[in-house]
């Protein structure tokens, strides 16, 4: 079934997951000060001449809330995110940040308003965690400026929000993959932007660090005005932590709305080509993937690379309070 | 209470000092060590040679107050002019042997810093002015000047800069494909370097007499033989400019190390910054090539050695290069000038002989090499 492509999402005041008190509390206060990001008629491709990956889509994210982009591999979700972040210049269409075309902003101005965590990040091994997080202040500093008091405060806040105070003086090269991801998130947080774009922040992480990362997202949703857009591979994670979901398939937005609206058995069949059971729980819909669908043979079973996903335990283990009860005292 | 607070603040002060020592201690040791090498190498250079004197005599000549306190001598050395009268030892030391040491110092820091910048710009540990074709571009222009337009010799650093910049531009254009990548830059550099190297060799065939060929060889291998205050005057201003620019750009260099997409999302105009920093590196390389020819391996190895000791923070790395480059260069020139005395070999041969094995050793020791 095809959802209509509405430019407006379902509005910031609607309560989509009414069983979650934290979300309710958040939404009442929803955010006039939060930043707004919208892409209009975006055509985005990697090389001019080639078929564009995203072909004429519009997206408007609700200020102050969490929007998750989901879709199968190659559906264009990361491309859309890079387009919104102005990392890939759209072939046509505009991205507006609080009403201003991002092309009218200098790269530094944009970086003060919009932070992006890429999928893969590289750093020298010998840099310390603190120094790496300090780089997040780059857009706030002039060419000759040294680190000001405000910069240090922002770095401290980012480090404590990411829960990596104990790693502060460690060298990044000595950390595990999950710890590194938290450090990178801290760097983007230190940018102190109104909008935060995260490209698959939990992919390749162990469960512990997936929960750590999503705990940060939850904190941002509940306790700040920051507008978060993230690409997630794990539909259960998206359904649990996001206020809004946008499902993409083959470069087109297939469905958008609250998790309850988007995560349906029909959509999973159509967009992800899987048979799955969708269960309504107090944390929103939860899916249990059953098997991969094939175009030719509807009844074939087996070959289900999706069934062994860790997603199921993710939802079961966390309480609605988030990560703190889980994360404390556990380190690699 | 008060005393408690007092001890607390001293203990935080101690821990801060400890952290400071932990962070900057290696750099401090490195700079002091390098200074010692430079001073020792310099003293050896001024003491030995065709006109031999004892170390004490050399010391006395170096610290001859009549020379040091006379503004006229400094004017002569730094601005060019009549050298005032002084005794024979001081004259030899100050007019012949010391300038060679000073040129070595300038060449060493220029090459090291140039290599360090190129390594950050390309995010590749194997980058250096030599690898990226800058040296061969500058060298070709110098040869052209010496063999064909010998009247223009006074403008060598500028001509060398032009050659280096043109070579690097060609490399950039070849590597450009919706932006550049470290690997494409290095590959393009090797291609351009090879072509320009062939052209250099071709020039030898057109040179009329053997003297020109010999001096051309000295240029292409890098030599400090016969350098003078004139070379110091030639290289010094450019060196100061390049070193200052490199030092104040250290944060940009650090952010470049995080990769293009991160640098861009942090608000850096990556291509602009890369281009500007490459300009600084070309200037530094050209200033050294103009006075000493193409000295190999220094630009590759010094940043590497320093990085192994102080880590990859460019604030420290650039400072380290400013000191270790001269140390390596002065020490190598001692070898070049004195080992086969009275025959002097080009210093580039010594740096190559020392640098090659060191690099091999690094390759064997480190599992992965290439990306910083």
Question: Would you kindly provide a written description of the structure presented here, covering whatever features stand out?
Answer:
The complex is a heterodimer of chains A (332) and B (372). With 332 residues, chain A is of the alpha/beta class. In chain A, 31% of the residues lie in helices and 22% in strands. Chain A has helices at 21-28, 77-84, 107-113, 129-134, 149-161, 177-190, 207-223, 235-241, 259-262, 265-272, 311-317, 324-327, and strands at residues 37-44, 54-61, 66-70, 92-97, 100-101, 114-117, 195-199, 227-231, 244-249, 252-257, 274-281, 284-292. Chain A has a 6-stranded mixed β-sheet, sandwiched between helices. Chain A has a 4-stranded antiparallel β-sheet with strand order 2-1-4-5. A two-stranded antiparallel ribbon of chain A has the order 11-12. In chain A, α5 packs antiparallel against α6 (177-190). The relative contact order of chain A is 0.16. Residues 1-31 and 299-332 of chain A have low confidence and may be disordered. Chain B has 372 residues and is an all-alpha fold. Chain B has one domain (2-365): ABC transporter involved in vitamin B12 uptake, BtuC. The N and C termini of chain B lie far apart (50 Å). The interface between A and B is medium-sized, with 32 and 23 residues.
Give the uncertain stretches of chain A in residue-range form: 1-31, 299-332
User: Quaternary state, please?
Assistant: heterodimer
- What strand line-up does the widest sheet of chain A have? 6-7-8-3-9-10
Q: How far is the N terminus from the C terminus of chain B? A: 50 Å
CATH architecture of chain A: 3-Layer(aba) Sandwich
Query: Shape of chain A, please?
Result: globular
Write a concise keyword list for the protein shown above.
heterodimer; A: 332 residues; alpha/beta; Rossmann fold; 4-stranded antiparallel beta sheet; 12 helices; globular; disordered N terminus; B: 372 residues; mainly alpha; ABC transporter involved in vitamin B12 uptake, BtuC; 77% helix
């Amino acid at each position: 079934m095809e959802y209509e492509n509405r430019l407006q999402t379902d509005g910031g005041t609607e309560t989509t997951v009414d069983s979650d008190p934290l979300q309710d509390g958040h939404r009442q206060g929803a955010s006039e000060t939060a930043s707004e990001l919208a892409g209009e008629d975006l055509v985005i491709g990697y090389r001019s001449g080639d078929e564009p990956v995203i072909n004429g889509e519009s997206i408007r994210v609700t200020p102050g809330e969490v929007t998750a982009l989901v879709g199968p591999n190659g559906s264009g979700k990361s491309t859309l995110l890079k387009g919104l972040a102005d990392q890939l210049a759209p072939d046509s269409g505009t991205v507006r940040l609080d009403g201003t075309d991002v092309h009218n902003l200098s790269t530094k101005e944009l970086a003060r308003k919009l932070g992006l965590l890429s999928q893969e990040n590289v750093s020298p091994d010998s840099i310390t965690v603190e120094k790496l997080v300090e780089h997040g202040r780059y857009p706030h500093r002039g060419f000759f400026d040294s680190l000001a008091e405000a910069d240090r405060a922002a770095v401290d806040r980012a480090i404590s929000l990411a829960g990596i105070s104990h790693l502060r003086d460690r060298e990044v090269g000595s950390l595990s993959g999950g710890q590194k991801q938290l450090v990178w998130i801290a760097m983007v947080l230190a940018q102190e932007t109104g909008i935060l774009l995260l490209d698959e922040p939990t992919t390749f992480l162990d469960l512990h660090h997936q929960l750590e990362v999503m705990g940060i997202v939850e904190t941002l949703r509940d306790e700040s005005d920051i507008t978060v857009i993230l690409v997630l591979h794990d539909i259960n994670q998206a359904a649990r932590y996001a206020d809004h979901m946008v499902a993409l398939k083959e470069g087109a937005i297939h469905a958008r709305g609250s998790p309850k609206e988007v995560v349906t058995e029909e959509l999973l069949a159509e967009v992800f080509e899987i048979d799955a059971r969708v269960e309504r729980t107090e944390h929103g819909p939860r899916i249990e993937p059953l098997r991969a669908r094939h175009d030719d043979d509807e009844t074939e079973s087996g070959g289900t690379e999706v069934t062994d996903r860790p997603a199921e335990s993710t939802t079961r283990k966390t309480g609605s309070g988030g990560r703190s009860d889980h994360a404390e005292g556990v380190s690699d | 209470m008060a005393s408690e607070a007092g001890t607390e603040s001293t203990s935080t002060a101690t821990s801060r000092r400890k952290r400071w020592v932990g962070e900057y201690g290696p750099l401090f040791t490195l700079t002091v060590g390098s200074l010692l090498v430079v001073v020792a190498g310099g003293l050896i250079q001024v003491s030995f040679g065709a006109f031999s004197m004892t170390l004490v005599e050399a010391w006395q000549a170096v610290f001859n107050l009549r020379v040091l306190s006379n503004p006229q001598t400094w004017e002569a050395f730094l601005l060019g002019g009549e050298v005032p009268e002084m005794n024979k030892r001081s004259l030899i030391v100050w007019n012949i042997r010391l300038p060679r040491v000073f040129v070595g110092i300038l060449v060493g820091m220029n090459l090291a810093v140039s290599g360090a910048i190129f390594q950050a710009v390309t995010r590749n540990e194997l980058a250096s002015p030599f690898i990226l074709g800058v040296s061969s571009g500058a060298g070709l222009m110098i040869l052209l000047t010496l063999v064909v337009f010998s009247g223009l010799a006074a403008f060598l650093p500028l001509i060398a800069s032009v050659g280096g910049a043109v070579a690097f531009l060609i490399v950039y254009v070849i590597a450009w494909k919706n932006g550049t990548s470290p690997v494409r830059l290095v590959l393009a550099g090797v291609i351009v370097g090879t072509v320009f190297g062939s052209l250099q060799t071709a020039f030898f065939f057109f040179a009329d007499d053997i003297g020109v060929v010999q001096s051309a060889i000295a240029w292409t291998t890098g030599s400090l033989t016969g350098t003078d205050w004139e070379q110091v005057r030639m290289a010094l201003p450019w060196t100061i400019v390049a070193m200052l620019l490199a030092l104040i750009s250290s944060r940009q260099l650090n952010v470049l190390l995080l990769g293009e997409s991160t640098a861009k999302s942090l608000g850096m105009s990556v291509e602009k910054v890369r281009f500007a920093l490459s300009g600084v590196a070309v200037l530094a390389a050209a200033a050294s090539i103009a006075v000493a020819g193409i000295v190999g391996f220094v630009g590759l190895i010094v940043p590497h050695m320093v990085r192994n000791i102080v880590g990859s923070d460019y604030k420290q790395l650039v400072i380290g290069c400013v000191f270790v480059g001269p140390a390596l260069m002065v020490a190598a020139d001692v070898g070049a000038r004195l080992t086969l005395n009275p025959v002097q070999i080009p210093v580039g041969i010594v740096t190559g002989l020392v640098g090659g094995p060191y690099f091999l050793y690094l390759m064997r020791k480190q599992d992965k090499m290439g990306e910083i």
